[in-house]
Design goal:
2 strands; globular; 2% strand; 55% helix; two-stranded antiparallel sheet; mainly alpha
Length: 208
Amino acid sequence: MFRLLGIFVAILFISRLFLLTLSCYAQEDGQICWPEDVCKKNAEISKRALQAQNPNLCNQINQGTGTGDIGPDPVDDARVGCKVAVNLEIGGLDYCRSLDSSKFRSRRFSCLLDFAIKLKKPELCDELQDASGREDCRLMTNYRVEDCEKYKSFKFIDDPYNSRSPFAYSMCLRYVAENTNNQAICASITDKGQQDICQRHFRNHDIW
């Protein structure tokens, strides 16, 4: 009896997971969002806000989704995500700086990172409060191959099992390739995984 109950529970779980997968929506940035109807509605509002260059239109979002930071109210998080996108277009760097780092940690990180790349100002990374965030941001805002030399023997702060540090140099080269739009650099990346990511970035870029 217990075995049959276990099988039933497993089937129920798999069916729900399948339904959730069907209701997911792939956003333009490749991030998976759910439920699909809410994601599409929020995407339309964000599109209008971008076109009007008016972040206040993001306040029309009244439903949250399964993306973004874990912790804040989903509606607040969705609105912040929309406002970050608009402010990136209109040069609203101060909006990034105003975000509560404890409540919207990943939103603030991505906002400052995007501005650091857009303005070619890696020093903006230093405005991130946590050391690991600053470290990652600095890695992702390199523009010259020679700047990657220091990553040949690098140890990440948040890498206790040494799972990322051996690939730091290859990761740096990948970001240089992406930031300078130089696909030729991908071929010089020795780590196969990072090289594949680099090449895939340019294939996807060509598609869009």
